Amino acid sequence: MNTIVFKQKLSELVNLVVVETPLIAAKARAGQFVIVRMNETGERIPLTIADSSPEEGTITLVFQEVGKSTMQMGLLEVGDAFLNVVGPLGQPTEVKNYGKVVLIAGGVGVAPLYPIACALKKAGNDVLIIMGARNRGLLFWEERMRATSDRLIVCTDDGSYGRPGLIKEPLQEILATETDLAHAWAIGPAIMMKCVAETTLPYHLPTTVSLNSIMIDGTGMCGGCRVLLDHEVRFVCVDGPEFDAHRVNWDNLLERLSFYRADEKLAVEQWKQHTCKLDLALVQEVQ
Ligand code: FAD
Ligand code: FES
Ligand code: MG
User: What whole-number distance in Å separates Cα of residue 160 and Cα of residue 174?
Assistant: First the structure.
């Protein structure tokens, strides 16, 4: 149970793991997530279900190494198991035939956007996708995204692959030329989703974002994941994670995401020091 049956490095910082979780696999729908814990003292880490196979009883998780817990998770191998995997959590994406839709993925956001793109395509939508990353080394799943879209634009911030620059420019072009767009989705860093929200607002294009607020229990009990929609409080774990991008109070979300940054930085430094000492001890033992 919760055993990793497959692992793949998708880019220098992004890992894919396929985890044996038959009960979750049987119920998972596009847009939902799980919370994993590696061990008794492990943090609770929310991760979107990037794919699922009810037949094989597995779910696919794709995570970027950004801090101590995800770096530790990057060391897990096939045969290792998570202590807990809780889910599927959150509300699934509202999938229907909207007509023509544009999907925007930033960085690791490609993974959570993939099942949504597949579901929207299957429902008969004309799917345009823009995917962007900081550089070529951080890009993954271009072919998967191409296969599930009618048109794909790939960009890198540093111009090392595809169209140079941020996703904002191609999005603006699409908004100006594709006048029959019915809906947009964006998943990626909060600052990128804020930019998409500001770009689609003048076009009155309904835009959905999947919010990545800090979570603890994931069941609506702690209030840690609260966000403001206009002035109303919502809990991302139970009311979301998807919300109307034009109603999200982005400054509040960005501020809340940075609450623990000093502690998170310290945790990484201490963990790296500890790991280096262990490596040194092992080398000395061998010598
Ligand atoms: P830390 O150094 O602890 O934190 C780095 C940053 O990650 C923080 O500044 C904060 O912004 C965020 N973060 C820290 N702790 C949490 C927490 N408990 N919950 C949420 N965010 C946190 N990342 C992926 O790579 N792939 C995914 O599919 C994915 N799906 C997500 C789905 C949801 C619903 C949410 C809320 C988040 C998702 N994330 C995903 C983000 C992922 O949970 C964080 O990157 C991870 O928790 C960071 O942990 P850390 O200890 O490695 O980093
Ligand atoms: Fe605790 Fe959402 S994570 S209420
Ligand atoms: Mg952490």
Answer: 22
Helix (H, G, I), strand (E, B) or coil at 111: helix
Packing angle between helix 168-177 and helix 190-200, nearest 10 degrees? 20
Residue 63 CB–ligand 1 contact under 6 Å: yes
14 lines ligand 1 (CB under 6 A): no
pLDDT average per 10 residues of sequence, the chain (287 residues): 94 93 95 94 93 96 94 95 96 95 95 94 96 92 95 95 93 94 96 96 97 92 94 94 96 88 82 70 54
User: For ligand 2, what atom is nearest to the CA of residue 238?
Assistant: 2
Query: Full-prediction pTM beyond 0.85?
Result: yes
| Distance from Cα 135 to the centre of ligand 3, integer Å | 24
| Ligand of minimum distance to the alpha carbon of 140 | 1
**Preceding amide of 88 cis, omega within 30:** yes
Distances from the Cα of 259 to the Cαs of 63, 214, 224, 230, 263, in angstroms? 21, 9, 11, 21, 9
